Amino acid sequence: MRRCLQLAACGLGRVRPNPMVGCVIVKNGRIVSEGFHQYHGGWHAERNAILKAESDLRGATLYVNLEPCSHQGLTPPCANLIVEKGIGRVVCCNDDPNPLVAGRGFAKLEAAGIEVVRHILEDEGRELNRRFFTFMEKRRPYIILKWAQSADGFMAPSITGNGKRETGNGKNYWLSSPIQTIESHRLRTEEAAILVGSQTYIDDHPQLTARLFGGRQPQPLVLDRRGRLTDVPDHWLHLRCTSLGEVMQTLFERKIQSLIVEGGRQILDAFISEGLYDEVRIFRSQALLGIGLPAPAIPPIVGNRLKIID
C-alpha cells in the first residue's frame, strides 16, 4: 500500500479534479504490474496497471489507495475490469466519498466473489488526497493561506503620502528571494486556483501564473466585493460575491478543488476569522523592514500543515 501511495503522488497537480490513485498487482508473492492515474481524462490507476500486466491475473491481489470506480465517466468503470480479469482479492486504503462511487465499487467486487480488504494506511491515504476529501466532505476547496513576510514580521512596507512603499531601512521593497519565487511558482502548479482581493489586484496587477516552473497553470481569481473592477481579463474568474460563503459555493459548483489565498492582509484576515483554511505557507525573508504592515498572526493549524519557507 505504501508503494500505491508513492505511485499515486506522481499525479499531483496533473489529475485534478480527480483524486491521486496508484495501483500495484501482486501474484505468487511478487509484483507483476503497477500503474497510476497520470492525467485528468486518462486511464485510472487500476486500468493502467491491468493493461500493463504481461501475465494472467486470475487469483492475483490488487492493491489500490481508493475504492475502484463503478460508473462510466470519462473512462470505463475499473470495478468491471477487475472482475473480468478474475482478480481474487482487492486491498484498499480509502473509501471513495464521491456519491457516484461511495460503496458501489466495493459492492460490485464482493458480488463477484472478490475478497475486499479496506482501510489499510487510511490516514496516510486521506492526507495524500486531502484536497479531494476536503472538497467532497466539506463542499469547498482545500484552502491554503500564503504570504511573504520580513524577518521582523512585516508583510509590506508602509505607504507614504505620495503612494510609494516606504521601509525603515530605505531599501527597495521585495521580500521573496529568487529561489523562493521559483518555489512559490512550483507550488502553484499543484493547486487548482489562486485568489487575491480587489485591492491587491489594483495595487500590484499580479499575473498569478506558474510561469517560472513548468506545469498546469492555476485559475486566477479576484474577489471584488465592492464591484470596483472593470478591467479583469477574460481568463480570470471575477468573483462579485459579497461573502466568503458565497465564494465557497461558487468554487464548489465550478469543481475548484484547491485554492491558494495570496491576497493582502484584509482578505487573509477574513479567511482566518471565518476558519476557512486548511494549510498556511509563510515565505520568510531575511530582510528587515523596520516599519510596515504586520503579517497576520499564525492561526491554529493541525499537524504538519504549517510550512515556513526560508
Concise summary:
By secondary structure, this protein is an alpha/beta fold.
What can you tell me about this protein's structure?
This protein is α/β, with parallel strands linked by helices and 310 residues long. It has helices at residues 2-8, 45-52, 78-84, 104-111, 122-128, 130-138, 178-188, 198-204, 244-253, 265-273; strands at 22-27, 30-36, 61-66, 89-94, 115-117, 142-149, 154-156, 158-159, 165-166, 193-197, 219-223, 237-239, 258-261, 279-284, 293-294, 306-309. A seven-stranded parallel β-sheet has the order 12-11-10-13-6-14-16. The protein has a five-stranded mixed β-sheet with strand order 2-1-3-4-5. Strands 7-15 form a two-stranded antiparallel sheet. Helix 8 links the parallel strand 10 (193-197) and strand 11. The longest helix has 11 residues, at 178-188. The model is unreliable at 167-172 (pLDDT under 50).
Structural features:
alpha/beta; 7-stranded parallel sheet; 16 strands; 27% helix; elongated
Chart the SSEs and their pairings:
Layout: H1 2-8, E1 22-27, E2 30-36, H2 45-52, E3 61-66, H3 78-84, E4 89-94, H4 104-111, E5 115-117, H5 122-128, H6 130-138, E6 142-149, E7 154-156, E8 158-159, E9 165-166, H7 178-188, E10 193-197, H8 198-204, E11 219-223, E12 237-239, H9 244-253, E13 258-261, H10 265-273, E14 279-284, E15 293-294, E16 306-309
Parallel strand pairs: 3-4, 4-5, 6-13, 6-14, 10-11, 10-13, 11-12, 14-16
Antiparallel strand pairs: 1-2, 1-3, 7-15, 8-9
